[in-house]
Amino acid sequence: MSKLYSISATVSAVCVVMILIFVPPLVEKARNKVAPHKPFVISEKAQKLHQNLLVGDLHADSLLWNRNLAERADYGHLDLPRLREGNVAIQAFTAVTKSPKGQNYHSNPDDVSDNITLLALVQAWPPNTWDSLLQRALYQAERLQQLAQKNPQQLKVIATRQDLEQVLASRAEGSQQIAGFLGTEGSHALEGKLENIQRLYDAGYRMMGLQHFFDNELGGSLHGESNAGLTRFGQQALQEMERLNIIVDLAHSSESVVRDVLAQAKRPVVISHTGIKGTCNSPRNISDQLMQQIAAKGGLIGIGFWDAVCDVSPEGIVRTLRYAIDLVGVEHVALGSDFDGSVTTALDASELAVLTQTMLQQGFTETEIRRVMGENLRDFLLQYLPQS
Ligand SMILES: [Zn+2]
Fold first, then answer.
1. For residue 362, what are the CA distances in angstroms to 318, 322, 358?
2. Mean pLDDT in each 10-residue stretch from start to end of the chain (388 residues)?
3. How far, in Å, is the centroid of ligand 1 from the Cα of 328?
4. Closest CA to 323 of 312, 339, 309
5. For residue 41, how far is its CA from the centre of ligand 1 (angstroms)?
6. Beta-strand (E) ranges in 112-154?
7. pTM
8. Distances from the Cα of 226 to the Cα of 26, 40, 184, angstroms
9. Domains, the chain, with CATH or none
């Protein structure tokens, strides 16, 4: 009997190990695809300009997946080697903590079971992340901090303006160090407690989305059921985020929440990743008029690389950038790739030069290219991150 028991325990253990080794890459390969394409041919002129740019991106969900981001993978969209190849200087790392089953752009209830629980299990995340959204955010922050500790020449997690200035100075001397900063996809990770804003801040979070795909304690999602505005708790959370100099991200928020925040916020806000309704009439995107109001208050809008721009080709992304510049002004447009955000893109982080080339081909000025590719993000962070 005990022999039988030990055989079955061994078989079970082997099965669990096999699942932990083989399933996570399979899941990620299915979720974060790059559309097959021949290598992009980049002209010498475009490559030279691209190497001269300060490149920054407002949104990537790479911490959700177990890949070692210090190594170049042949799947997913982003890791440190590919960021270097793409000449990226500033990268947001945004933490997904809950994703409803059957997730869609139209309507998601807030009480259905959640895909991240199973993902946390098969990726062998610590048990305290299995049922706590807060712990999932803290765990992802810890992963980024450890990545930077192990690869200090390559990555610095920036918490202050001075941290960013240090990375910029080191790059000016020829390093390829990347400034990474932490953001959340929605504030359900607060678990309804205002004091958890400070807790996430202490873990390094400097940008917080208010909603993701479902309504939460702070207010309505653009893809939720209520279309509600900011709740009383949402108003208090906004005040606390502003007190701590946390950048507020309205991606995925209902139009009512966007209007409420614009009426109450004292600091500019961002939309870290979006398309523009005027070029892509998707329920994923808020109205052009609200985009203009965000920009008029000094905000920054990150244009995505996935189906929120409808045409995800480099030409399609650049057409959206052009439209956004004409709509809100060049100072308010940035990149918001949504790399590794369970999306299919036409390029990965190593191939960003194709955007520079396409902008040149479509008649963008060098100033427009510089601003959009990263200087707007740099300047925004230098103005709105906390002082040390
Ligand atoms: Zn998102």
1. 8, 9, 6
2. 76 77 86 95 98 98 97 97 98 95 86 88 94 97 98 98 98 97 97 98 98 95 94 98 98 98 98 98 96 98 97 98 98 98 97 98 98 98 96
3. 21
4. 309
5. 30
6. none
7. 0.96
8. 35, 44, 22
9. 32-384 (3.20.20.140)
